[in-house]
Amino acid sequence: MKKLRIIIIALLVLTAIGPLKLKAQEPDIIYYSNIQNLKLYPAGNPFGYPLIRLNGGDQLELHFDDREGGVKSYSYLWELRNADWSPVMLSAMDYIKGFTQQRITTYRNSSVALTRYTHYQVSLPDRSSGPSRSGNYLIKVFLNGDPSKVVFTRRVLVVEEKAGIALQVLQPFNNQLFTTHQKVNFTVTTRNLNIVNAMQQINVCILQNNRWDNKKFGLRPTFIRQNNLEFNAEQDGVFSSGKEWRWLDLRSFRLQSDRVDSARYSPSATDIYVKTDIDRSAQRFVYYRDGNGMYFNETLDGLNPFWQADYATVHFSYKPPGGMPFRNDLYLFGELTNYGKDPQSRMVFNKEKGIYETSIWLKQGYYYYGYATKEGEGEKAFFSMDRTEGNYWEAENNYTILVYYRALGGRADELIAAASINSLAGRPGVISN
């Protein structure tokens, strides 16, 4: 009896510790520096977010390069997470159909390009492995069949449409935010779901331009009318509008585009120097179609952007107003730096020149980016482009609404609805992206 009690206590301790260990593997992190140009998106749409319908036949493309070259044994697995991305207390067999692990077998060595690397790609979900229930998932890629050797993680959303969403983007009523922010109002129709307490069973997340760093999470309905949940509280769903993102055309290293100041070529490397960027916060708003901080790979010097595109060290610089540094750190911001998570995204202030500088390794393509300061401390820290880019209500942004549901007695959150809207939708005389 005493031994049984000890075993039970040990199991309880392990159960409590297990999730804490899993939390160390955060979403959208690259753990190995040799992994470059990591992209996960809907098939054929590099600006899309990796969201698929459960059993709907949707496909995702995963692409990445290994700068060390050669052939390595990379595998991946699906891991279900809750709405807040905390680990679920379920076995993989409860949410995976087929094999729990799958090897990546499609790869090709670079050709034509000066830089040597190996390009890997895979279509998800595979016929032999895929999700069997809706929710938030982490795709974990690891080495040599050992799940503890995680190379990188990426988020995937799997939705099973059990609810509907009607949404619109408005100007906030608050006169202090009226010209600089955008507000998302929406209504969720729960249809035939068995909802006893919507405040506890329904959770909502709003993303702006596919970013998670400034998400609005944990929103609760303002009004509940039968099967309709209305989310229109004045303080909820409000985002800084920003501006259209800066751009950089690196589709060719031989033909220097408008944003390139100069280039240096050698037999073993290429260095591209981008024209020094300046503060845009006080500049008048100008609309142009952009990629909202993302990028796509393309080469004008070859045929295939996956294994014929080359790499270069790209040097960015930013001149702050008056040549004086900010009180907070400045970051090169966008998908090209994993939205501030990559170490090279933090810029260093050059006192002699009065500018911020950083250098990153980029593959040929077309990039949209910006500059952001890191505000706050610890877990409350966030990125802000208020000082560097400015905010205008007229800016074009994409918003995505995610609705999660926890059944009575359920052990994981389900993703029951997802919808997107462009901030230009419905504006007179404007054609949205």
Q: Would you mind describing this structure in some detail?
A:
The chain has helices spanning 2-23, 198-201; strands at residues 35-42, 51-53, 60-66, 74-81, 96-98, 101-103, 106-109, 118-124, 129-131, 135-143, 150-159, 164-170, 181-189, 202-208, 211-219, 223-225, 228-231, 238-240, 246-249, 260-265, 270-274, 277-278, 295-297, 311-319, 330-333, 348-350, 355-363, 365-375, 382-384, 398-405, 414-422. The chain is mainly beta and 433 residues long. It has 3 domains: 24-159, Immunoglobulin-like, CATH 2.60.40; 164-242 and 394-422, Sandwich (Immunoglobulin-like); 246-384, no CATH class. Strands 20, 21, 22, 24, 26 and 27 form a 6-stranded mixed β-sheet that branches. The protein is globular and about 65 Å long. 33% of the residues are buried. The model is unreliable at 6-24 (pLDDT under 50).
In terms of per-residue confidence, which ranges show pLDDT below 50 for 5 or more consecutive residues?
A: 6-24
Give the number of domains: 3
Estimated helix fraction: under 10%
How does the major sheet shape up? 6 strands, mixed
What structural class do helix, strand and pairing data support? mainly beta
Instruction: Provide the β-strand percentage band.
Output: 35-45%
Mean pLDDT: 92
Shape: globular
Count, helices? 2
Report how far apart the termini are: 68 Å
Question: What is the CA-based Rg, rounded?
Answer: 23 Å
Number of strands: 31
